[in-house]
Amino acid sequence: MKKVYLLLTLISVTAFAQKRFDNIKSVKLGEERRITIGLPESYEANPEKKYPVLYLLDGDYLFDPFSGAVSYGSYWGDLPEMIIIGIHQNKDQERYDDSTIDEINGLPFEKGADFFEFIGAELIPHIEKKYRTSPFRIIAGHDITASFINFFLYKEKPLFNGYICLSPELAPKMEVRVPEKFAKVTEPFFYYLSVADGDIKKIKEPIEKLNSNIKLANNPLVNYKFDVFKNTTHYTEVLPSIPNALYQIFEVYRPINSAEFNDKIAILESGYADYLENKYNTMSKVLGVQIPVRMTDFKVIENLILKKNAYDELGKMAEIGNVHYPKSMLGEYELGLMLEKMGDPKRASKKYQNASQMEPIGDLNKDLMYDKIDEMNTLAKKTK
């Protein structure tokens, strides 16, 4: 396990080659605050591309493990590239001052209120003005800063789409207020909560109460995960939490694997093409990540359609192909395949002919189209 985390750290150094630092003059705080910015390796090469943003409190020690996990996941195509912002709180007293709350009403107070305003009114606008960001924002923290990020949930319209709370030392009333907010959520929302089995009772019991109350809220729009890590402490539970949190939030981004296929797709009686379309629409509309349909995912659905004899769905697959690869032969090929399977070789031949004049993609090429044309023409003559 230690080797895995060392690998993640090493990857973070290389993949986030555009790691840089900035000092933001804050009117709210009355001082400069240092931040670390990690830009994806592809940032300069893709001037039109926008990226989700991950904001880290306790950025001094959370930046490297988070950037390593993101780099590793994006290398294998399981996580999207993203911009990572680490807020420096490198003095013990500073992070406590930033998280100051009123112990009576359980809300940010004095320096804590200023820090809350700094993030929402100064940091986020600064980042979104300077960098190409998508609307999807995540925030993470550990201990008291993990508790602090929940205050953004109290707003009428939360600033963040995803929250990663690592062993939070919850503020008063938070185990009740957060679930109350969950019950009112009207848009897809992500929340990750973790705790160590070795955490002290003062921290562990409120977290367990929060978990129970969140389950009672039972809002299907809330994508929620709770982890208890055995044989860990308040500090060592952070490392296994990070990949779990990121893979939970970006689960739909991952290429179709055997678990997704068996548990969600193969059990369907119909609507296989719709499932594929919805998967990529969710990436775009919910996660703010726009990528063309992976050809591996496309072939998984196409093969299942053929296996289930659901040939009419190949028409929908043609539409998906034309949207994501408009210059390729994919759309026309799918129409040809549909007509072939439905016993109309003459019209299928015409579609394959159209496809042969377009750009090859994946295992589809002109030679295959010419073979299909000959095959369909021969079948058409036999059926006259």
Describe the structure.
- This protein has 384 residues and is an alpha/beta fold.
- It folds into 2 domains: 2-253, Alpha/Beta hydrolase fold, catalytic domain (Rossmann fold), CATH 3.40.50; 258-382, Alpha Horseshoe (Serine Threonine Protein Phosphatase 5, Tetratricopeptide repeat), CATH 1.25.40.
- Helix content is 49%, strand content 17%.
- Strand 5 and strand 6 form a beta hairpin.
- Mean pLDDT is 93; it is low at 1-17.
Strand content: 15-25%
**Radius of gyration, CA atoms, in whole angstroms:** 25 Å
Report how far the terminal alpha carbons are from each other.
67 Å
Principal-axis shape equals: elongated
For the biggest β-sheet, the strand order reads 1-2-4-3-7-8-9-10
CATH superfamily of the largest domain: Alpha/Beta hydrolase fold, catalytic domain
Instruction: Point out poorly predicted stretches.
Output: 1-17
Sheet bearing the most strands, described? 8 strands, mixed
- The number of distinct helices, counting runs of at least 4 residues, comes to 15
Derived from helix and strand composition plus strand pairing, the structural class reads alpha/beta
The CATH architecture category of the largest domain equals 3-Layer(aba) Sandwich
Kindly report the oligomeric state of this protein. single chain
By CATH reckoning, the class of the largest domain would read Alpha Beta
**How many domains, as an integer?**
2
Query: Got a strand count?
Result: 10
Series of secondary-structure elements, N-terminal to C-terminal: HEEEHEHEEHEHEHEHEHHHHHHHH
- Give the rounded overall mean pLDDT: 93
CATH topology of the largest domain: Rossmann fold
User: Into which percent range does the helicity of residues fall?
Assistant: 40-55%
